[in-house]
Amino acid sequence: MSFSSTTDHRPGPPPGAVDSLLEVRNLSKSYGPIRVISDVSFDVPRRSVVTLVGENGAGKSTIFNILSGLTAQDSGTVRLDGQDFTPGSHRKAVARGITRVFQEQSLVQNVPVYENLLLGEEARFTRFGQWIDRNAMIRAARQIIEEAGLDVDVRRKTGDYDFSTRQSIEIARACLTPTILRGVAEPLVLLDEPTSALDRRDEEAFFTLVNKIRRYGSLLFVSHRLTEVLDISDVIYVLKDGAMVTRVTPDETDEHRLHGFMVGRERAADYYYENRQQPPGTAAPAIRAEGVQVLPDGPKVTLEVRPGEILGIGGLLDSGKSRLGKAIAGVIRPLAGRVAIGDGPLRHPEIGHSTRKGLGYIPAERLTEGIIAGFPTAWNFSTGSGGDLFSNRFGLWRGRKERSATLAHIDALAIRSATPDLTMARLSGGNQQKVVLARWLERKPDVLILDNPTRGVDAGAKQEIYRVLRDLTDQGVAIILITDELLELIGLSNRILILQHGGVVAEVPAPPDAKPEEQRLVALMLSGPGRPGAASPPSPAPAADVPAEAKPAILEAAQ
Amino acid sequence: MTTTIRPEPSSPLAPITRLFGRVETGLWFPIGVVLSLFIFFSLMTDSFATLRNFSAVSGQAATLLIVCLGATFIVLMGSIDLSVGAIVLLVGAVSVTVLNAFSIGWLVIPFAALVGAGLGLVNGLIYTKGKIPSFIVTLGTLSVFSGIALTLLDGRAIQFNAPGLENISIGQWIPRLPNIALWAILAWAVLVFIGQRTRFGRYMYLIGGGEQVARTAGVPVERYKLYAFALSGLLAGFGAVLAVARLGAAGPSLGSDLLLNSLAAIVVGGTSLAGGVGGVHRTLIGVLIIAILDNGLNLMGVSQFLQMIIKGLVVIAAVLVSRKSGADQVIK
């Protein structure tokens, strides 16, 4: 699907008409069977700011990874300054004038700022081969800091500066070293959510810097902050599910319409078996979490889920929703807070104890936390029950029972092509996930916590997983569903919590006959001034940039 | 659905895999090495393929095998135990001291095993509670244990004074087979069973194959790491007392070659240092390779220095050849 066929916003410049610094044409990339970007084309004109917006998983990071040489596309071409650009490594991309600021900081904490600023450039400051001329390095570093308008002593240890300043240092490095040190006339800087970690003061310096660079180079942004995107971009491209949806300019659109482009999909009620959604009864909660805190100085979350209820939790990638799920399950130790399962007492959650009490946890990172790909299906299946179901009290393994139980679940969940002895690596993502699901189904759980259960799962398996979730709620299982997929969040949940920076900013009811709109949830995820490191919990009061229709939800949450 | 389940295509190794309950690939190569070494040395020296020599080899290899059994679990779960040789030395020194102070006779065997388990537990506690890499922990305790042992021994070999005790090692309840080798084979069989048929064994594979996965699924990872180190120490203690009984004394050089030989045997046997792959059953083959190599080169009159070179090269070559080709993994 190319963007030109999907919308009447006729995007893209006419071929050859604009002298672009970067031309991306028909870029596609798959990881295994999963297509992460497909047929994406866009341009970065010279001396301009271009922004890519889209939901989590829309493919923005993959595009950045290709442009910065961390991965290669399957097909499609990239031309930089009119020449073919196939870097092959990050180093070569940097040599061609493309630098990148990563979402996670890559500065070395315990060395002086100037060493970080000139990391990888030491060879320019050596005399007699190996002797490093510190003074020359410090002079060059000072020049960069002054140009960036920062108040930083380059000789001090990087770790002495707070997170926001360090982020500014990193941005300055990416933006200015190409020109100042390498003499690149027209640098292209890739910035992934650059301002989410900046405080107000550093943000101003950042925007000044952007305007400076725009005089000779170009910037390609990824950002969730649509107000800011509209402020600084010359061109905005909207990505959805790995494909380009549209190209707009700030003066022809507004935040609301951008939201629409980002999420605009049809929501099919029967896909999520919404007709099977039951209002939770008045039974005692199956799980209660009190005062769970997952971020330092962050807010505390209190929630409860009743038998047969699906509580959805949504939020941006940095909202702390995955950490919250892990903390409630007891996979990681929460900074504060206690959890009660069933009618048990409130206690510090610990996953071993939680599973014995009837909780199951399905992690988002299937390949590193969910399954051991090199091990047989039966082994992966029985992992959660080694302490009781599949070993006797002398510690002997009950291999035959393990085998028959595996076969039963392979049958019941239609895990195609699986046998107990087959290594998991040979199964598709969907079938792997079904094995993880079976791991907990075997234990007849009372509570299930699922983190992005359908990530990397094909559509068919997705729907089967949804069906199993509905079966479970029919049997009175309480489910906490953490997901980046808005439609899934809306379609499956009885109730939705929106998280920002580790705290609940809104609670939105989602009965089958009055499901909330996607735009409204997106607005809630983006609303407010909350930023990482803010000492106070984000206030539930609506911020200025929340569209009007989001307000009722916030009021509900306040009740 | 069940009708579509077919057994894996049967391999020539089917009897072995049935015995161990897990499909083993790549076992042929180490077995082939054992056979080639056997044939090679049989042709090169007359004294190699004799019953007398086999008695000698089995006696020498027994301590190595017993010590390797526990250490294999440690490697299997992705950690490393460098201190087994030092535990052997310390337990040997303690055993001799205790034997000479109190006449406890054969009770020294459970005593030594318990002391060893205690030392292993020390390793395990520092490793799990301190969250320090096992390499560092056991490198440290390697030095500490050796130091304590040499202090006890005062740097000299001390003979024990317990008549008849040496029979537990050098007696031959089965003709031509020294008892120490019998112990080793029994211990191997028990440990293979533990590795393949118990919860402990399964958890070792799970922790080595994907510690985070095991933890996320509620496996008490830390506790089982402790068990593994205690088991490794227990077997090192057991091996130590048998070695002392065999030699009639504990001296400063007791266990000194075990550090390198144990790791070499485990790795050559096919247990990956990355964890999750291999097992105790394979370690027997690794021990055989190391032992036959040692013995055969000795019989051929090859100098000690050249032997070291050859052994090192064989270890590297064995792992190089049996390693999964093209495996894209971090090597450390």
TrEMBL record, chain B:
The keyword Heme does not apply. It is found in: Cell membrane. Its main location: membrane. GO terms for cellular component: plasma membrane. The chain crosses the membrane at residues 27-44, 56-76, 82-99, 106-126, 132-153, 173-194, 226-248, 260-293, 305-322. InterPro entries: ABC_transp_permease. GO terms for molecular function: transmembrane transporter activity. It holds the Pfam family BPD_transp_2. Keywords: Cell membrane, Membrane, Transmembrane, Transmembrane helix. It comes from the Bacteria. It is a multi-pass membrane protein. CDD domains: TM_PBP1_transp_AraH_like (cd06579). This is ABC transporter permease. It comes from Paenirhodobacter populi.
